[in-house]
Design goal:
heterodimer, A: about 170 residues, Rossmann fold, 6 helices, about 40% helix, globular, B: about 500 residues, alpha+beta, Beta Polymerase, domain 2, Cytochrome-c3 Hydrogenase, chain B, 2 domains, 19 helices, binds iron/sulfur cluster
């Protein structure tokens, strides 16, 4: 259901115009609660990143960004997840694991490609050992550019996505 | 050719004896072993071994040639265990066989990569079908056989590649007896990105961006080592100012990593406040990095010939931030050292004996915490390290606690280096303009990353483009030591031991 709505909004990959480090907690919360009923569960999957992208995802949970305030949390298993936050160009040796992770995620599975590599292979594009981004392996609903995208930016992109879903509904 | 690199050409059968003699003398550390495909120019493959002298700033680099029709040589591994992964890597990438190697399974490539296919050979190609089948991972072309532990009550626990936390992918297979880890076999290289080959497809100048993206949290040390290699190859001397900027940023990189790592170790002991505290100080430092360089991970500063920005113009910000961080850091450490539940878990856990660490060629914090007095900043001074008065910090305790304390002491050392750097002014341009790279030459570059030494060895072809870029990250040396450290520990202590090494998967998988 949610997936369908998403698909309608995002015809193809779409880059959000987000401002960095410009997150107002109160406004964010107001926007998000009506959408996900205060709960969005994210499973982060490293598909061959350089690891800077993961550290920015990890930073989302530190007290400075504290993404849990908004009901967003990063969970330990794809089975608990609404959304896969995928980083890296998808190295060929991670391709199978990524597909299997997607299979293990319950519907609606939103897939977000996080970072330039995840969008199109980034700096590694053209290497024999990587794909051209997440999109070339599994369907992607949203992309977040940056190398790495900073935590504030990831946060805004997720919230903007929720807002779009809400508007798509009304 | 750089002054401290001594190349020694040897016959194939002499090479092994020579290396073993150097190694057994106890005066050298084996640093890295690699191959290059020189069939076009010299009609052969060449295998190099880099030793560094313990007391002098000198690299001894014996090498020998191998013909394509007889790609077999006598393995060094039985005598120099530290090269066991290198020989397997060379086999995977070049198809050169180390005869007598105790473990000839593939290291880098997983089961569905075609057999007899060697990407770093210059004439290597791969079909679309093979590539697709490799990615799909359904057809096993060369099956990897995990080691099996047999016996009453032995239980096997496979974990990964996708883990519960936000960490990089790797597969671990534990053989346990009750709760105790009897044997651990890591299967890595899930994030293999073909980086060495990728370097060959871009100019040396563009390679800097790639070097920054080998291992995200060592972006600066990697790019500095890479630039240093290219600069040495092209005989370019960087200015005092550029050297000062690099030294400063290397220490800032160490600072945010070490503090973050000390915090992360708390996640392994369930001390949430320690984990959070470390994360907050680290975040402060990352934001400071951004103010200073425009990048939280210190990217975009290094270029061939120098640096792009003079961070000393922001000396006030550096001073204030470092002062504030010092205050917080002291409180943080005081809290940790006073938390008995934390310290008790660290002490005597995950021991890595000095003997094993030496034999495996372990580097960095892990080596120093096992009593090996080795730090590239001291052993082979570069940038401004020769002018700085500091000593490598070691500990003889060999456990997780020692690895935390070596980091803690190095944090203080980095802070004093940063403060010392701020006391002087430095001359020269930020960068000297470099347009061309000499043909057919080669050189080493190296730095001490937060995890240990990183080496780049670059070689240009007849047009001054990259012919070979060998990169050896510290994690590649240290991964094989982790199973030794966790042997005899209980499974729940594995994350803690692992965090105390904090190795990069992307860095070692390349
Ligand atoms: S987008 Fe940049 S930071 Fe993220 S994984 Fe790729 S290279 Fe690393």
């Amino acid at each position: 259901m949610l997936k369908k709505i998403l698909k309608n909004i995002f015809t193809g990959n779409r880059t959000l115009d987000v401002k960095e480090d410009n997150v107002s907690p109160v406004q964010l919360k107001k926007k998000m609660d009506p959408v996900f009923g205060r709960s969005l569960r994210i499973r982060q999957v490293d598909a061959g990143s350089c690891n800077a992208c993961e550290w920015e995802c990890t930073a989302l949970t530190n007290p400075v960004y504290d993404i849990q305030r908004y009901g967003i949390d990063l969970v330990a298993s794809p089975r608990h997840a609404d959304l896969l936050l995928v980083t890296g160009p998808v190295s060929r040796q991670m391709e199978l694991a990524l597909r299997q992770t997607l299979d293990a995620t319950p519907e609606p599975k939103i897939v977000v490609a996080c970072g330039d590599c995840a969008i199109d292979g980034g700096i590694y594009k053209g290497s024999y050992a990587v794909n051209k981004g997440v999109d070339s392996v599994i369907p992607v609903d949203l992309v977040i550019p940056g190398c790495p995208p900073e935590p504030g930016r990831i946060m805004e992109a997720l919230v903007q996505m929720m807002e779009d879903i809400r508007q798509g509904r009304s | 050719m750089p002054e401290n690199e001594r190349y020694i050409e040897l016959e194939a059968n002499r090479f092994r004896d020579h290396c073993i003699a150097l190694y057994n003398s106890g005066r050298y550390y084996p640093r890295l072993m690699f191959a290059a495909d020189l069939r076009q120019s010299n009609d052969c493959f060449r295998i190099y071994m880099v030793f560094s002298e313990k007391e002098k700033d000198i690299f001894h680099i014996p090498f020998f040639d191998l013909k394509e029709n007889a790609p077999v040589y006598k393995s060094l591994t039985p005598d120099i265990p530290a090269v066991h992964w290198y020989e397997r890597e060379i086999r995977d990438m070049f198809g050169l066989i180390p005869e007598g190697h105790p473990d000839l399974r593939r290291l880098v490539f997983h089961d569905s990569f075609p057999s007899d296919s060697y990407p770093l050979r210059k004439d290597w190609t791969i079909s679309r079908t093979d590539l697709n089948e490799w990615g799909e991972g359904l057809i096993k072309k060369e099956a990897y056989k995990f080691m099996e532990v047999e016996g009453e009550g032995v239980h096997e626990i496979p974990v990964g590649p996708v883990h519960a936390g936000i960490i990089e992918p790797g597969h671990f297979r534990f053989s346990t007896v009750g709760e105790t880890i009897f044997f651990l076999e890591p299967r890595l290289f899930y994030t293999h990105k073909g980086i060495e080959k990728h370097f060959e497809g871009m100019s040396f100048f563009d390679g800097v961006r790639l070097a920054e993206r080998v291992s995200g949290t060592s972006s600066f040390s990697h790019s500095a080592a890479y630039c240093m290699a290219v600069e040495r190859m092209a005989d370019i001397e960087i200015s005092e100012k550029a050297a000062a900027v690099r030294t400063m940023l290397l220490e800032l990189e160490r600072l945010y990593n070490h503090i973050g790592d000390i915090g992360n170790m708390c996640a392994g002991t369930g001390v949430a406040i320690g984990n959070t505290y470390g994360a907050v100080i680290k975040e402060d430092l990352l934001q400071f990095n951004k103010r200073l360089t425009g990048s939280r991970y210190l990217r975009g500063i290094n270029i061939i010939g120098g640096v792009t920005s003079d961070v000393f113009l922001k000396a006030d910000d550096i001073l204030n931030t470092i002062d504030a961080v010092t205050v917080e850091y002291k409180k943080f450490m005081k809290m940790l050292l006073g938390t008995i539940s934390h310290i008790e878990r660290l002490e005597n856990t995950g021991k890595l004996s000095k003997d094993i660490a030496l034999r495996l060629g372990v580097t960095g914090v892990a080596a120093r915490a096992s009593g090996i007095n080795d730090d590239i900043r001291k052993a082979h001074p570069h940038f401004l390290y020769d002018d700085l008065d500091f000593e490598p910090h070691t500990s003889g305790k060999c456990d997780v606690y020692a690895r935390m304390m070596v980091r803690a002491e190095e944090v203080e050392c980095s802070i004093s280096i940063i403060n010392a750097l701020l006391e002087n002014s430095y001359n020269g341009d930020l960068s000297s303009s470099v347009k061309t790279i000499p043909a057919g030459s080669s050189a080493l570059g190296y730095t001490e990353t937060p995890r240990g030494s990183v080496f780049y060895w670059v070689m240009s072809d007849s047009k001054g483009m990259p012919h070979r870029v060998k990169l050896r990250s510290p994690s590649f040396c240290n991964w094989p030591a982790v199973p030794f450290a966790v042997h005899g520990e209980i499974v729940p202590d594995f994350p803690l031991c692992n965090k105390s090494f904090n190795l990069s998967y992307s860095g070692s998988d390349m």
